[in-house]
Amino acid sequence: MKIYISGQITGKDPVEVREAFQQAAQQLRAANHTTVNPLENGLPDDATWEQHMIKDIELLLACDGIYRLQGWEQSDGAQIENYIAEKRGLEIIDQPAVLAYDPKR
Known about the structure:
Layout lengths: L1 E5 L7 H17 L3 E3 L12 H13 L3 E4 L7 H13 L2 E4 L11
Parallel strand pairs: 1-2, 1-3, 3-4
Helix pairs in contact: 2-3
């Protein structure tokens, strides 16, 4: 399954954010999922919040599920991503859960 990682970025220590997203990606890949990390969306770090959100939503729409990091509720962007995931009927997974690989998905 292709899973988008969602969580609070703005207002947090950039090093901690990178570590949290990378750790989530490693866990999901270990369960044979393909991951989409918004920190690797191809935009420069100094792009605007709006530019990042447009790109991140584009990436989310190409996924089968969303993995919500702890504290995602504190992020406006993650709330928007969650809303879109719910409306699109994507699989919603909360940290720390990792789904086993299902080749039928």
